[in-house]
Amino acid sequence: MSLNLKTYTEHFTNPLYLESGRILEPYDITYETYGKLNDTKSNVVVVCHALTGSHHCAGIYEGDKKTGWWDSLIGPGKAVDTDKYFVICTNVIGSCFGSTGPMSPQYPHHNPYRYKFPVVTIKDMIKAQRILFDKLGIHNVHAIIGGSMGGMQALQFAITYPNFASKIISLATTHATQPWAIAFNKVSQEAILKDPDFKQGYYEKEDIAKNGLSGMAVGRMAGHISFLSHESMQDKFGREYRNTDGLYELFGKFQVELYLEYNGYNFTKWFDPLSYLYITKAINIYDLSRGFDSLNEALEKVKAELHLISFKNDLLFRNYEMKEISDTLTKIGHKNHHYLDIDSDYGHDAFLVEIEKFKEYIKDVLND
Amino acid sequence: MSLNLKTYTEHFTNPLYLESGRILEPYDITYETYGKLNDTKSNVVVVCHALTGSHHCAGIYEGDKKTGWWDSLIGPGKAVDTDKYFVICTNVIGSCFGSTGPMSPQYPHHNPYRYKFPVVTIKDMIKAQRILFDKLGIHNVHAIIGGSMGGMQALQFAITYPNFASKIISLATTHATQPWAIAFNKVSQEAILKDPDFKQGYYEKEDIAKNGLSGMAVGRMAGHISFLSHESMQDKFGREYRNTDGLYELFGKFQVELYLEYNGYNFTKWFDPLSYLYITKAINIYDLSRGFDSLNEALEKVKAELHLISFKNDLLFRNYEMKEISDTLTKIGHKNHHYLDIDSDYGHDAFLVEIEKFKEYIKDVLND
Is A98 among the domain residues? Predict the structure, then answer.
């Protein structure tokens, strides 16, 4: 069967009440669906994206070269089988792929929000999604799956809306962002803020898309380090040098340097710097325990069947951070949770590139 | 007894023939000595500094607040006992604390070299030191000690000048810089190069000293991540926030962010950006095997008693990189080498801050 990919943008005129006390009004949510909603609306699987991801998690647009970011996991006959499930993935608020973010027009004057955009949190992101699903007549779902910031959303769903999803699968994430990850985000934020072409937030979108923003490229390079591991870098690049004769040239380059340059500068052509600042802020302040006395108390809310998948040498979110969730759930007597630590050399990127290692697991969880 | 700290700058008019085939002529070497050279000149201990270190490894200058970078290790009655040993530490060529570097005047016109400065290597750095020692009438030494880039120099001494030192102690380093470390250097280099105030290398020293260079600050922040570990960051900063009321302020800050800002921006006031580019280049292209068929063959040169000290969660230079040196030495039948892997939560910084954990070891090695 076909993937049945459809992209929509839904406009909301009611205010979205944010965790900060501020409101977003009106706002848009762009989302994508795959497969077909069944008559009882019991076959919905929600997919949540990471920092720089989007609603486009599977399939390929006409004329594009790259598929959606989890295409090897989601599709007809795949682990998240769109012949069976109706998959929805929304672009988070604060992002730059259709949902309302800092460069969206602020009503009524239609100038971009820029710094007037409110800080949004992971909780706000899932609240907006929940409102969208309600509008679509979907009041509970079979499963929610996400990795990295997507995994944060999945866990936040489990706590904030305990009856909403039967199954939660959260990969390569944490219960509260630790200083190591905050530090990497800091390098990126600082690199953006100090780039004169960022114009203190008053840049023109078109200029960035055309010329890139070197500060954001530098920041993204730091990000890429955090996504990889010593082992994957050694395998991928070793000490390979572009031109051995140029070893003593100050600007001669190792393969790993070319990789970072390519990905860094390419990134600035498709991602918005203000969105980067706002979403990394959301990640930094993410803490499942906020509003509770402890992680214990927060996790006592969880009713769903919960699956936690970590990767052994993920250096951005360490596997012990996820194990702590699992251990806490065990301690408080949650009956139906499972923790899987996957051996991988890919570091944090494993949740995107080592699908082979967990797709059967996800398939079984969904079909169980 | 007193430390007997003395600082000198020696001027050399003969050309220094570099690994690249280029020459440096004339050149200066700034160095510091502690203790007293004995009559037989048999009590010399050479200390080698890291990337941003200097010849000032012990004691304190009048009016300064901070001591030399290894002051808790070196001094009267300390592990490197200046009552017993005559300690010499030189500022490496390429650096910015007195020895000739990219901002030194180029003869005969006296304008700074800037990009005309040749790429120098770890081998060049120790060659210059060797020439200095010769000039001082010191043709062999009791021991050479260094950590990080200082450890690279110590190892390079063992291979390039096998009869020069009786004992070599190398800490927190590697036999060849791996892509993980190169990647961190890349972020720093790129951040410097793309900063308009860097003026493509044609900045005024005074402007940087006065205003800082935000690109170098950003790069240094990335550097600091690589010096730390998940554990040390968790201990040191946790998720502490400067102002909890400001959690939803885009520019509200975690403690770890303030630490990076402070150290990043402070750094730009005392270190030269061109030196940073040149020294990180030297680190990137450092490879003990260069000029040999293999690491085996390179290490066959080693005659000294060799001590390798790694730190368990050093993320910049992994402990297994040093173990590889030890294993190779064992394989090729080198009789007198020792590998010590120290348990520490401090990451790479351990060689500077966890002196307690190895000072007795170093004392025993020197006094044996």
Answer: yes
